Amino acid sequence: MTIFGALIIFALIAVIAVQLGKVNDLAAKIRGEEAVMRAGNDSTGRWLVVFMVVFLVGCIYSAWYYRDYMLGYGPWEASSEHGKEVDSLFNVTLIFTGIVFVITHILLFWYAYKYRMQQGRKATFFAHDTKLELIWTAIPAVVMAFLVANGLVVWNNVMPDLGPEDKFLEIEATGYQFAWDIRYPGKDGKIGDKDFRLINMSNNPLGVNFNDKASMDDAILSGSDVIKLPVDSTVRVRITAKDVLHNFYLPHFRVKMDAVPGLPTYFIFKPTKTTAQMRQELSAYPEWNEPYDPADPEGPKRWEKFNYELACAELCGKGHYSMRRVVEIVSKEEYDAWAAGLPSFYKASIRGTDADPFKDQKLLDFEIEDRKAELDSTVDPLWSKLATGRDTTMTAEVLTLRLKYVFFDTGSNNLDALSNHELDYIAGLLKKHPHIRLEVAGHTDNVGDPAANRALSMGRATSVRDRLVSQGVAASRLVVNGYGDTKPMDTNDTEEGKAKNRRTELRVI
């Protein structure tokens, strides 16, 4: 019914407009076409002058009223080192273009009034005026030369690349419909190589080349994960895209660069304000002390919920809006602690799969280092605690160390040379803690004869004991036992379960 009523109203408006047109035509015939035209021109000229005043006053007033919402003004001073130069460039450009804007609009509307058609006035035609043409060519040329030169100076300051001797954090941003994947370097501080031909949407969506060792400790943030960066640190962003044109846009830092498929770009900037500092600055403005949720006037204020953001500044499809990501700027110490906890994409998703170029290798360098760090953080403090005597509250599980990288030939007790990395490090810990005595226990799965399994497990435990002794551990501190398949820790009905049951353990006694 509402729609029907609206249609009737529109129809009536159309009828009125047509009737007014007919009345105007009739009046023109009565008063004469020329008189009507002059009256219309006079009216139009006056209203154009009125519009000019209202328009220019409105432009100036709105710019002043909303100044605290515009980048570069009020609380929106750039939060990056180079951003101040960009803001200065825009301000200088605004001064010149603003002057031209005001003058041209005054002339546009004033001339429409001053030179309106009047009785007895005749327009004068002249082909050219050399002096006038020189003026309106020379002045814009000089202004443009100044703006372009100033822009080139800022561009050269903002866009120089970094050399190997420079200290910086490099991350990689890959845009796609409709999200960003952010790749962080690991402990080596380097982002590894990638190749689009290696892209596999199931396990390697970025096409990371894991033959490059620098890639092995890289971490990848996807989805809605918060992007964290350290304050007062130079950040270099590799920027690319997988499908269509995107744009890497950090408005608060004055960072904006196209993400082009097949054409890597970059941007370098240094954040100068943490998220907490920016929130504190916003808290001084009345409009930012309003409730974040109007329905909850007692809830957090707008400034408390402020976040820097990464956006896509290209209309990349119907899901364009969803490419927004939160960016958090934190202290260097907080960033280092956070980055240390980022999981390696290779370790978490690639190692041991068909996409792993090293799947046939039992042990890689980083696994050795990780294992040493693991032993330092778990076994070393535990054995130190036991120096004052046995803690009866500790369970057998806590007191048991399962060897992770000890390998034997199939059906044999011959140690693979790769086993020496872990065993020799454990030998060093045992020499550091002479009060510790261990049972070296061998276990097998249930494949084969139980008596043979028991003998095999005993032989393997003995081989481990002998390696530890060869590294300076007293034999009297080590007791050897072979349990065969009598103490499984998982089911023997699956290959995964059997692999867990084939193990060698060191238990504090």
Please, could you describe this protein's structure?
The chain is an alpha+beta fold. The chain is built from eleven helices and 14 strands. The strands form three sheets. The chain has a five-stranded mixed sheet, with no helix packed on it. The mean pLDDT is 87.
What is the structure about, briefly put?
The protein has 509 residues and is an alpha+beta fold.
Task: Name some characteristics of this structure.
509 residues, alpha+beta, 5-stranded mixed β-sheet, elongated
Oligomer: single chain
The rounded Rg comes to 38 Å
Whole-number average pLDDT? 87
The share of residues in extended strands comes to 5-15%
Structural class: alpha+beta
Q: In angstroms, what separates the terminal alpha carbons?
A: 88 Å
Write the layout of secondary structure elements.
Elements: H1 2-31, H2 33-65, H3 83-114, H4 130-158, E1 169-176, E2 179-184, E3 219-221, E4 227-230, E5 235-241, E6 246-250, E7 255-259, E8 265-269, H5 275-282, E9 308-312, E10 325-330, H6 332-340, H7 345-350, H8 365-385, E11 400-402, H9 420-432, E12 438-443, H10 450-470, E13 478-482, H11 495-501, E14 503-508
Helix pairs in contact: 1-2, 2-3, 3-4, 8-9, 9-10
